[in-house]
Specification:
14 helices, alpha/beta, single chain, six-stranded parallel beta sheet, 15 strands, 419 residues, nine-stranded mixed beta sheet
Length: 419
């Protein structure tokens, strides 16, 4: 893609974000996206980022940062040399380090990007603030609810930005879905069903120069909550966002049901998050069947929105009994085959109509969140509302883990840090 083609593509993407967030209601519902899309970032003097963690996700972030107008990767850090070498190929002018403290001491950066195992997020965030830097950190925030809050407290004390990676909050399709929901198109929301189903072990081959815990850290309790922090966090944020609330409590069940290979985290989880007014978010995730994949079903009294698929469905009138339908056909002079001895009702099967598109395409929402971060760093002011959404999603994921571990309902904490 040429620079001109990319500029046109980027402009089209930004225009779709602005269109999806137009209006006072959406300005209040997604102020971060409005701020990120409304500002045209300056190309000169880009914000210099030091990326810590250059595995698969870290390298994906590097590629998205390269698309921004206002950020550049100035330094790279990873304790695993093969990952670092692959990242250097993507950012050949960036300085490379095997230790994050050496990178911080070397200076020459304005902020750090953390894409390391979950249990290291809090410590690296604190080190970044201590070095006088802003911090962008992958979701989930941290391994414990206490550490999530401590990251925010340290950010406030240091006067530095903390932004967490939740790219769906910048996605035009999700923004349009929220806009139409807030406009009442699907009626009163009462339930959200969300799932992230895969059919693989989630276990990666371990090279001779690495350990299993180093490569497969997502499978061990000390470094991850597995499906809850690595996947569910995204969809719990979507649930809180669309319901415009946080849960009141959560119940759930988790098990190592299929992959009995020494892992410590659940490979099968099912939870119910309860919200005020009796509303619920029902969440499932498993690793041995991919039929339903990754999806959210936002269910209202007048319709359903599936933002992951980019579709909106209106409720259809209930089907009439076959005999009633025959009477109407006779009155209209219509003829059709009449089943003799067959069923006189229609089972309540899933709706198979295609619905209406919410708008779809090749979006760069990860790019936009970094452009927003870059402008926030320049202004010294965070994108409004973004951190609270991320914090509450991380708390919800960890609270769900506790509910499954204890086999009892967990109440939403009352001692969370104020943002």
């Amino acid at each position: 893609m040429t620079d001109h083609e990319f500029t046109l593509s980027r402009r089209s993407f930004i225009d779709r974000v602005l269109l999806a967030t137009a209006g006072a209601g959406m300005a209040a519902a997604a102020p971060w996206a409005v701020s990120a899309a409304a500002a045209e970032p300056a190309k000169s003097n880009p914000v210099r980022l030091g990326v810590i963690g250059t595995g698969d996700r870290g390298r994906a972030l590097i590629q998205n940062i390269a698309k921004t107008r206002n950020c550049t990767v100035a330094a790279l850090c990873d304790s695993y040399a093969p990952h670092l070498a692959r990242a250097q190929a993507l950012a050949p002018t960036a300085r490379a380090f095997g230790d994050h403290r050496a990178m911080l001491d070397a200076g020459g950066i304005d902020a750090i990007v953390i894409a390391t195992p979950l249990n290291t997020h809090a410590r690296l965030t604190h080190d970044g603030f201590d070095a006088g830097l802003h911090v962008w950190c992958e979701k989930a925030m941290a391994r414990t609810i206490a550490d999530c809050g401590a990251m925010i407290t340290r950010s406030q004390a240091a006067g530095k930005l903390l932004q967490i990676g939740h790219q769906r909050m910048f996605h035009p399709t999700y923004l349009n879905a929220l806009k139409r929901t807030r406009a009442g198109e699907i009626g009163a929301l009462t339930q959200i069903r969300a799932s992230w189903h895969r059919n693989n072990s989630w276990r990666r081959p371990v090279p001779a120069d690495a350990t299993d815990r180093q490569i497969n850290w997502r499978l061990y309790r000390d470094s991850s909550a597995g499906l809850m922090t690595e996947l569910a966090t995204h969809q719990l944020q979507v649930g809180n966002w669309f319901l415009d609330a946080v849960p009141t409590r959560v119940i759930g069940s988790g098990s190592i049901c299929f992959w009995k290979d020494g892992r410590e985290v659940y490979d099968h989880v099912a939870l119910i998050y309860e919200y005020a007014g009796g509303r619920k978010l029902i969440y499932t995730s498993l690793l041995n069947n991919a039929r339903y994949g990754c999806e959210e079903q936002i269910q209202g009294s007048k319709g359903t929105i599936e933002p992951e698929l980019g579709r909106i469905y209106q409720e259809v009138p209930a089907k009439v009994l076959a005999l009633q339908r025959m009477q109407k056909d006779v009155a209209r002079g219509h003829k059709r085959t009449v089943p003799i001895g067959g069923a006189t009702w229609f089972p309540e099967l899933p709706v198979t109509t295609p619905g209406e598109s919410l708008g779809w395409g090749e979006y760069d929402e990860t790019m936009l969140q970094f452009e927003g971060f870059g402008e926030a760093v320049r202004a010294g002011k965070p994108l409004p509302g973004l951190l609270a959404q991320a914090y509450h999603a991380s708390v919800a994921s960890l609270l769900g883990e506790q509910a499954m571990d204890r086999g009892e309902a967990m109440i939403w904490p009352t001692n969370l840090v104020a943002i």
